[in-house]
Amino acid sequence: MGLHFTKEEFSIRKSKVIQLMKDQNIDALLMFRQESMYWLTGYDTFGYVFFQTLVLDQKGNIILLTRAPDLRQAQNTSNINDIRIWIDKDGSEPTDDLKIILDELKLKGKKLGIEYEAYGLTGKNALTLNKSLENYCSIEDKSELINKLRVIKSKEEIVYVRKAADLADKALDEAWKYAKAGVSESKILAEMNRVIFEGGGDYPANEFIIGSGKNALLCRYQAEKQILKKTDQLSIEWAGTFRHYHSAMFRTIPIGTADPKHFKMHEACVEALKNCEDKLKPGNKIGEVFDVHAKTFDDHGYNKARMNACGYSLGATFSPNWMDWPMLYTGNPYIIQPGNVFFMHMILMDSDNELAMNLGETYLVTENGNERLGKQKLDLVVL
């Protein structure tokens, strides 16, 4: 069995979830987020693209409803003992199989919490689920119940986060090594991924973002791969990933000769990041972190070039993206706590001059402040 945490760790997590359920008068929780299933049981799969749910009641019963290809997946990667299979056939309704499970657990007329905010629960399946539960029980959106537990990392989790950070550092070494005029973006990606996999890492929850020239101003992956020019700019966002735990970084690298504006943009990014570091402390609101980010850039005249968020939580996440809850934007009331892990990205996209500058690092919140997990320099490296 490929469990990545101790029995004691899983037991503590389960107890915390059940206590929250009792506090919120939820008789059972229907999990659809793969992140919740992995965190609670170790279950590791991409089978969540089909109808799949993990049921937990207040008595501690755990039952997984999934498809046949994930039977052995659950047996080999999780501590789930009761695994039910819904059959693929024309007109099949897995919600019928779910009702059988709910009947067994005597949940008719009870109150169920449902993780609606889940990539594995499509709009169509959610409508079908709601219809099947009409006049059967009461339901309530509990998408954030486990999120609020997952957002604080345990000592065992922090070991994996640190390993992911080390892999991210090694990937940057490869980027600096290969980011030269005449080299393709594909080669750089290949070498960055190679060192992560050779270090025991995993696929990230989304693609690395890479782009040169005008594409350096993009904040999403796209399929075009260019050859670096003698004078160019290269933006890369990537993450080291270990046991699905992520530690992300972001850099813009001028190639050949940096534009003078690059240096000014980089200075503003470093200042903004330092100001965010100062604000990222237990007791502060994450919305306040964004506010100092915005003020710093605005004071430098980059209001139109900056983003409306400056980071997000990181943890064990699955495709389609590694961004976790909560996000750093103005007004977000989440109170920063020890054990939080946040990726803070300082992004400037100057469309008028077709120049980009990005600087991003992952931080662990400590009892009195924070620790930058990456060990690489923040200097502007021109290659």
What does this structure look like?
The chain has 383 residues and is α+β, with helices and mostly antiparallel strands. The strands form 2 sheets. Strands 7, 8, 9, 10, 11, 12, 13 and 14 form an 8-stranded antiparallel sheet that branches. A 6-stranded mixed sheet has the order 4-3-2-1-5-6, with helices on both faces. The radius of gyration is 23 Å and the shape is elongated. The model has no long low-confidence stretch (mean pLDDT 97).
Q: What is the makeup of the main sheet?
A: 8 strands, antiparallel
Globally, the shape reads elongated
Return Rg in Å: 23 Å
Classify the oligomer: single chain
Indicate the CATH topology of the largest domain: Creatine Amidinohydrolase
Low-confidence stretches: none
What's the architecture of the largest domain in CATH terms?
Answer: Alpha-Beta Complex
Relative helix content: 25-40%
- Supply the number of helical segments: 10
Count of discrete domains: 2
So, the CATH homologous superfamily of the largest domain?
A: Creatinase/methionine aminopeptidase superfamily
| DSSP strand tally | 14
Please trace the helix and strand order, writing H or E for each element: HEHEEHEHEHEHHHEEEHHEEEEE
Structural class: alpha+beta
- Give the termini distance in whole angstroms: 46 Å
Strand content: 15-25%
SSE map:
Layout: H1 7-23, E1 28-31, H2 34-41, E2 53-57, E3 62-66, H3 71-77, E4 82-85, H4 94-104, E5 111-114, H5 123-133, E6 138-141, H6 147-150, H7 155-178, H8 185-198, E7 209-212, E8 232-242, E9 245-255, H9 260-279, H10 286-299, E10 311-313, E11 324-327, E12 341-350, E13 355-365, E14 370-372
Parallel strand pairs: 1-5, 3-4, 5-6
Antiparallel strand pairs: 1-2, 2-3, 7-8, 8-9, 9-13, 10-11, 10-12, 12-13, 13-14
Helix pairs in contact: 7-8, 9-10
